Amino acid sequence: MNPIILIYDIENDRVRTKVADACLDYGLDRIQFSAFAGHLSRNHREELMLRIENLLGDTKGNIRLIPIAIKDWDNRLEINHD
Q1: From residue 48, how far is each of 9, 41, 60, 65, 76 by CA, in Å?
Q2: 15-74 residue pLDDT tens
Q3: Cβ atoms within 10 Å of 7's Cβ, excluding its own
Q4: 15 near 59, Cβ under 8 Å?
Q5: Domain for residue 81, yes or no?
Q6: Residue 78, phi-psi category: left (phi > 0), alpha (psi -120 to 50), beta (remainder)
Q7: How far is CA 38 from CA 26, 57, 59, 77, in A?
Q8: Distance between CA atoms of residues 22 and 52, nearest Å
Q9: Residue 53 belongs to domain spanning
């Protein structure tokens, strides 16, 4: 499984919530309001994008799923003040 970042910009609140739920269903972690990160196999990446495309339907939206090299993922820097 490879690390990925999934980001989206969706105007419709209901659809946006369903897309977020789909990301959570695939085990991704929310890192921003409209951004998720995690590890997915290529099959699961394609499956998730098909699911999101179906949820989106005719709604305006922009979804990007970006694979990241493991070396780069391991070298990421984070600041998290909870």
Answers
A1: 16, 10, 18, 10, 24
A2: 999 999 999 999 999 999 999 999 999 999 999 999 999 999 999 999 999 999 999 999
A3: 15
A4: yes
A5: no
A6: beta
A7: 9, 25, 26, 15
A8: 7
A9: 2-74
